[in-house]
Specification:
The structure is a single chain. The protein has a 3-stranded antiparallel beta sheet. A two-stranded antiparallel ribbon has the order 1-2. It is mainly α. The protein has 7 helices and 5 strands. The protein is elongated.
């Protein structure tokens, strides 16, 4: 059960749906899906006999090479780097809490979590992927592979990790472990 203030939308009561061990399992699953989602082709386009395969990082590189370096950098950061840093940060927080070590590192990871949470935008990449696939579908043959499947699962897992992550609970565990 989660209750929010109707005026400022801050959490008043938060009863997390899963404990820290379940959150750890979600993060590890997302990290395992991250590898094939970024290495395997997401889309194979066949147009007039020419076959092109695309991954998320390849899309960022192509955009960068065409002179749109700011857009290419944004694609890479929002679609590859920030989600990896977000998942790694949460996993490190959970590991440090479990081990009872790394007081300063844990404090910094929890402190900087909202920034990573805002920058990791797989949903924007997913929407742009759907728009491109819809527009290309009229005049090209599209083939979706395991990369597409892994990216969809990664999106779902990152969504649940972000939903289940409770910064206030992490601060509470931090204080219980290191300050009391």
């Amino acid at each position: 059960m989660r209750l929010f203030c109707p005026r400022c939308h801050s959490r008043l009561v938060d009863s997390p749906y899963c404990d820290l061990d379940a959150l750890t399992a979600l993060v590890i699953t997302a990290l395992l899906l991250f590898i094939p989602a970024n290495l395997l082709p997401i889309l194979e386009v066949t147009l007039l006999g020419s076959v092109r395969q695309a991954t998320i990082a390849f899309g960022a590189v192509i955009t960068f090479e065409q002179g749109f370096w700011l857009v290419g950098t944004a694609i890479f950061v929002a679609g590859v780097l920030a989600p990896l840093l977000l998942l790694t940060s949460i996993l490190m927080q959970l590991v440090l809490l479990k081990l009872g070590r790394g007081k300063t590192a844990l404090r910094q990871l929890i402190k900087w979590h909202p920034m990573l949470d805002e920058v990791a935008m797989l949903e924007v990449y997913l929407i742009s992927f759907f728009v491109a696939a819809f527009k290309l579908g009229d005049f090209a043959d599209l083939h979706y592979g395991w990369g597409t499947f892994c990216f969809m699962l990664l999106f779902i897992m990152v969504f649940y990790v972000q939903y289940e992550y409770n910064r206030d609970l992490m601060w509470q565990k931090y204080e219980e472990q290191f300050l009391l």
